[in-house]
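hey can u check if this looks right to u? its 129 residues, i copy pasted from the old doc so theres a chance i mangled smth
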Amino acid sequence: MRGDLMTWVQRLVGAVFLIGLVALGAAVFALVRQAEGTPPLPIYVGLLGAVLLILLAGACMAVISISISVRHGAEMLRRIAAQGGGATASPSPGPTPRPLSATPSREETGSPEGVAPARMGARKLVAER
């Protein structure tokens, strides 16, 4: 039900945006119609107002969309936790991660010395961080 509420809030933001855009257009049209010539200031202010409305509505829609996605993710995590989540509780078998180094470990190379066997055309270390 809460997801439906957020969807309605998102629709409400869209409706307020459209009403504001129509009202802004009507105000600019009325100002231009009353003037004797074509006044540039009401047109520029109308365009600036439209840009601000678009930016504010876009930001509100983005925040609402992120909150809906987070809520769905949290619900999925709760469902997984309620089912037991057996696969995530046990440690994964395999090699343990180690920090980066210039020489590979013995497990990676298979050689007892810990150095990779020499190959023709092997890559050379050019620079270190």
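The radius of gyration is 31 Å.
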